[in-house]
Amino acid sequence: MELRDGGRPVLREKEQSDQAMALNMKISHLYISPGHNFFGHHEQPPGEHPLLEQREIQCVAGRGIRGDRFFDYKDNYKGQITFFSLEVFDDVCRRLSLHNNTPGITRRNVFTVGQDLNALIGEEFEVQGVRFAGIAECSPCYWMDHAVAPGAEALMKGRGGLRARVLSDGLIRSEPMNHSAVILAGGKSTRMGSDKAWLEVRGQSMLEGQIGLVRATGAEEVFVSGRTETDYSAFGCPVLHDDFHGAGPLAGIERALANTKSSRVLVLAVDLPELSASFLRMLAINGPQAMGAIPRLNGKIEPLAAIYPKNAWRLAVELLHADVNSVSIFAERCVQTGIASFVDLPASEVVRFTNWNSPADILALR
What we know:
Layout (H helix, E strand, L loop, with lengths): L1 E2 L5 E2 L10 E3 L2 E7 L19 E2 L2 E5 L3 E2 L15 E5 H10 L14 E4 L10 E4 L2 E8 L5 H5 L4 H5 L5 E5 L3 E4 L5 E6 L15 E2 L2 E2 H11 L5 E4 L13 E2 L8 H11 L4 E6 L7 H8 L7 E6 L2 E2 L3 E5 L3 H9 L5 H10 L3 E6 L13 H7 L1
Parallel strand pairs: 3-10, 8-9, 14-17, 14-19, 17-18, 20-23
Antiparallel strand pairs: 1-2, 4-5, 4-9, 6-7, 6-13, 8-12, 10-11, 11-12, 15-16, 19-22, 20-21
């Protein structure tokens, strides 16, 4: 074994063994691109090759990812495949005020959740039966400020992802999402004095922004839970109206659960503009695919940016018939009955759940 600068070990080819760490790595996105946009373009304009999201990629030992720009690039190339943390991407987006961006803008191949990628430098590891050798950090360069946004290169330093070699053949698949989404936009907006759905945030209406947000998570269908007197046709989404009138957000959730064809529904209030697509995507792949995932911050439930399983519909109906309209109680019951789990978040995440309830809130946030 040899050491790179900084003392990190790197495996030589002759030292590769039959033993590799088998990782239960959660994979949120997979991308390939047929050509280089930035690599080899120093002092030249960037390329325009599309980045293609894939449900699965074919890894070929010693060669890379079939169909990708680095496939058969050169013998023993250290970047035959690149891994990147969705948590890091989300943090970069949050710091740069990016909300609907897909991770593919970083030009990495495999996006992981809950994995320390730096710890894999110098290690052999196995993912879904395919073996890899972690070689080095995928260090960001000045092109990241062009591809993502100015400031991205500095924010990614030391956590730019992992370059790896492919040691065995096989397929890698991303986590199946199977979720739809509903934007809760049917409230009276009494304290705001006007319909919050039409307030402008970052150059578009709040409702348009939230629709784009959940579409970026890969939602199979997006519903709008709206007011009966309002025309939402410009958004191209099915509109749901409450069966239980005056029952608040839970009535909108009930309609979404009744109408979805997916196994789960991502519920998002229209007045939570500080959430990001990558954060919601991480929430969506937390835990078993058939279960709900409900954020909890300092012991406080955040039930209006959460995922509920379709089989929670009957529970919602029972509560509404009993005149129990609290979404927090509904969320607690989902957990108590074993169809959802809480996702505890650090205190630093509190800014994500800041909502716009009144003109004073808008002034404070701006």
